[in-house]
User: Fold this.
Amino acid sequence: MMFDSKVTSLAEVSLVEISKKFGKTLAIDNLSLEVKKGTFFTLLGPSGCGKTTTLRIIAGLLKPDHGELYIKGSRVTETATHLRNIGMVFQSYALFPYLSVYDNIAFGLRVRHFPKDKMAPLIEEVLDTVNLSGLENRLPEELSGGQQQRVALARAIVFKPNVLLLDEPLSNLDLKVRMMMRREIKDLTKRLNTTTINVTHDQGEALSMSDTIGVMDRGRLIQVGTPAEIYDRPTNPFVANFIGETNFLEARIAGLEEDFVHLKVLDLLVYAKRDAACDKTRRIGERVLLSVRPEKITMTKHKPEGKNVFQGRVEEADYFGSFTKYAVKIDEVRLNCESNNGSCGSVSRGDEVYVCFNPEDLFISQV
Amino acid sequence: MFLALFTVGVAFMTLISFHPYIPPPAFYGTKITTENYLSIFADRFALFTVGNTLILSLVASLLTMLFAYPIAQLLVRPGLELTRRLVSSFIILLLFLNSAVRSVTWITILGSSGLINSVLLGLNIIQHPVSLLFTNLAVVLGIMSSNLPYAILMLASSLRYVGVDLEDAARTLGANEFQVFRRVTLPLSELAVIATGNLMFIVALTAFVSPAILGGGVIPFITVNIFYTATEALNLPLSSAFSVFFTILTLAIVLIFGRITNRFLSKGMRMRA
Amino acid sequence: MKGILLVTRAARLGVKGFTGFVLFFLAIPLVAILSDSFAGSKAVILSFPPKGFGFSWYYTLLTSPDFAQGLWVSLPLGVTASVCSLLVALTLVIALKRYSVSGSDILRSYALSPLIVPEVVIGVAMLQLFRALGLFGSFFALVLAHVVITMPYSIRILEATFLGVDASLEDAARTLGANEFTVFRRVTLPSIQAGLVASFIFGFVTSLNDIAMTAFLITPKVTTVSMVIFGWSTKLYTPILAAASGVITFATFLFLIVLDRTIGIDKATAFVAYR
Assistant:
């Protein structure tokens, strides 16, 4: 058992400087991350960013070119898949079509030579946990998508794995079933206190289910944080743009105060809160990128108090039922904002409005 | 229109089979008789021919499946792209190659001046050349090498959809390589193997070229027998009768095999069939 | 633990070895006879290793009157039978596609039925029929018989081709004002082009290679290349057989390249492999 000082004692799964190449393409570039015991970690990113490759390396189905992998403190980089005590749910579920639900779940127990008499109650229990009691003798093709997925889950957790790996398990389901399964999986993993690593490109899924999110792009881990951190405090334009929607404005630093940064967006003077987390040493005259989320911009008919108030004209209004998306033109600058169709009264194209946003809701990054 | 030709031809043949034999130019007499069929069942040689054909076909098809399986797996595994393309192209070449040529190639191996004899003589294992042609072995080898390309490609196309996913899933569930093979790979191949095996048996049974060239009229085989009866003995009624019998036998085997395999297959695979 | 690893490794090696053996099994007969085609003119019998070296047997083959006669029949036969079978299959498939009557399934099975009957049996049947009709030994009879053999394959290939065609293309053409004939000429035919070529090539090769049925229908005057070789292989064992094998192997190789260029090898093999 190798102990490495880079590995903290709370981490259930640790990747240290993992790299993987496929032919000439670098799929994973020097990636390091830690997943704490009992937490739900999601790797989020667009197709091709390397998240599934990372998951397969954790599973042992792929060997990294460089780097080390630790599970529960032991170095498992070279260990064969079947000895890692992991549970994995595949995108296609990968249920054995010639085995019944019961036999599918029993598979992991049988290959470990689990005592036969203890198997049945354990399987019944896990079937109950995923709400599939009574379907033991069915075959996979006799089940619906959601049911198949639950069998896949049950199969992966019945032998109490160290880590549960989920490879985009919800992508093949209908919308309603997907929503339901999100909640069920989250509840399940919390109840069993299983360390879970999920992989998805769906940000809604990531934000609603995870304790921690790791955003990936082109083989690199861009930012790791809680859902709120990732959403409100993106450290990088890619993250800001990938998760939710955002407005990007080119700005120049006009002045620096202790608490605030003065920025010039064309002719507009904007105040941003100087936050240690998202802003490095800034110089006057520096060109930067400002971003602010649409829902953080308030629209009013009358001029409000405070900093960052601008007057503009509504150019577009797209109705979405429970909210409306607007595009407001302020001089030469165009801002997208959103508004609940309850509170703010109706605003239509051509109207003159005032927009306002808080200095804390601005995010500064390099151009 | 051509179907009419086909049907009429078959019907006519069936008709003829019930007529007695008369030497050319008439070829068949006018009264209706079952003497042709009776002679098949009475003739010990005819019965032996049927039996020999069945046994040789069985052996050939079993060996064909055994040999085809690993190659089919080779063609289906991801990776080894170049090898796969080469092997695949070679198999396809064999597939379209004239059956006479395929059988003739074995003459160079089995004949008294062929490869085997050269090797055995060279190593002083035997003193005089032994021709392995015109033996049951030769026929089996000939049928095998004719059928292998079909078997390999059929198996490969059935196995392709198995999904390497399931094997990976088994590994994550804790199965070592043996267990993966026994519990996943094998059961999934079951349907493909049985279906292909069935077909290979029928193809072996109805083979003509290999048994004719490598059996040389010495080794009894139904198709060869029919051929000589019709073209050399010029006994059309008898050959017709034998043909009808042969066709019914083949169809019967197809049906019986279908029933048996259905019972054999585990439920999950049966539904896929 | 070590023990299991060792056994696994041994098993893996065993499987690899067996696979290699099978490939060897498949390749060696072909290699042997191809090498023997270059045997010297003194070689009297097919042998391995070949005695002597030379191209004389190819010369003998190509100047052999039997071989030439076989080609003289086989090539036109192949083309004619293939084209006819293509036309008939085409009309059948289009008719089946358009008019799904309750009988169409039966009709289809009926059209494919020659595949179920052993070729030898078809041969006997055709033999008797042609004799009765006085057609025995004619080129015409051979064409008829070969169409019966090749038509099922044409049907299968065309069926599969039509499946891949976008039905809405024809509808689009109709809305643009094309009448049925024009639709067929400008939309349908180009779409199934690949299938037509494949069908022709397939039919041609099947006709050329056919032995089991053709064996019953030839006469010394009218015979095919395959039958010439078959005849030699039952009586004559000189390297002329090797030369013939060489020529045919090369021709098959060329044919495969053509097939690959038109519809791709994978599709082609699917037609043969699926029953």
